[in-house]
Amino acid sequence: MALIVVAIIIVLIALIIKFKPAYKVTLAGEFVGFVESKKIEQGRINDYMNNTEGNIAFIDIKEMPRYSFTLVSRDEKTSEDEILDKVKETAEITYKTYAISLDGDKQMEVATEEEANSIIGAVTEDLIEGVDMDFGINKVYTSELNLENKDEAIASLNEIKDERVEAYEAEKARQAAAAAAAARVYASSSYTYSSGGGNVGSMLMPVYGILTSRFGSRGGHTGLDIATSMGTPIRAAASGTVTSVVYSNVSYGNKIIIRHGDGVETLYAHLHDIWVDQGETVSAGQQIGCVGSTGNSTGPHLHFEGRVNGSPVNPSNYVD
Fold it and tell me: Using CA atoms, how far apart are residues 195 and 207, in angstroms rounded to an integer?
């Protein structure tokens, strides 16, 4: 019995001298190497999976290693780093970025929300009022990291801004030219019109723009429709008293009626804002409101009517 114990001890000593404990590691059924400690190696893999540095949102490992205890020659080298690298090859990384959109269309992605706000601020800092650039910022999860450099992002968006500013200024110039042409047309004719005892006399054109509808057109149109920019000031055609101020989203929309005496009235409709009150006395040329598109309107314009004893008359016959 003593000999058996001694023999076992000798065998164990021989094994300890020649072999060392280790874990055989397989990945998707394929042998990939040995590690000394299953706990340490799996801890390294878990640390990698939990990494959220930079723009990493999360990491999904498709193939986790399997470990089986074994004895290997003391000359056998373990492969901790190589095994971790092979595990990383099976990983799917999802990144979190911030997309800058313009008018609902994504333009680019940047690393942080703060950087996105900074880029938008730099582009809109000197933006001309009236030029519309509707920016948005959205969080994006993606498998591919394609981040825009801040300076390049600003340069790219500035190109779009410059194009819009150029188009806006060209449209303003076109509208100004059209308004000037219309003013010259109206200024070339001055009429005095009388009907039913009401002496209309000579009146001012309340606003200049493009005449889109004349008196009597479209089956009995009761005035003039003059298209021009939203917010353009409207002036009283003649001195008188404001007899009606109406705020409405139907028919004429926001409107003003001014009584000038001798049965003569003028009506101004579809206003954006009204700057006078009912009962107020106004003088010819006084600004009474601004052009809008309220009520039954397809775009910013002034509907201007002249009335004598309650009946519509053609404003073109008596405005200067």
Answer: 24
Name residue, tokens 């404003």: 315
Residue 109 lies in a domain: yes
Q: Is residue 1 part of a domain?
A: no
Q: Does the global pTM surpass 0.90? A: no
The per-residue pLDDT string of the chain (320 residues; one tens digit each, 9 = 90 and over) reads 777 776 677 756 656 677 789 999 999 999 999 999 999 999 999 999 999 898 999 999 988 999 999 999 888 899 999 999 999 999 999 999 999 999 999 999 999 999 999 999 999 998 888 888 999 999 999 999 999 999 999 999 999 999 999 988 888 787 777 656 555 544 443 333 333 344 566 789 999 999 888 888 766 788 999 999 999 999 999 999 999 999 998 899 999 999 998 889 999 999 999 999 999 999 999 999 999 999 998 899 999 999 998 888 888 888 86
Is 270 an active-site residue?
no
Please check whether residues 155 and 197 belong to one and the same domain.
Answer: no
Q: Which of 221, 270, 272, 301 is flagged as catalytic?
A: 301
Are 32 and 149 members of one domain? no
Which domain, by its residues, includes 80? 17-89
Tokens 């280790």 appear where?
Answer: 22
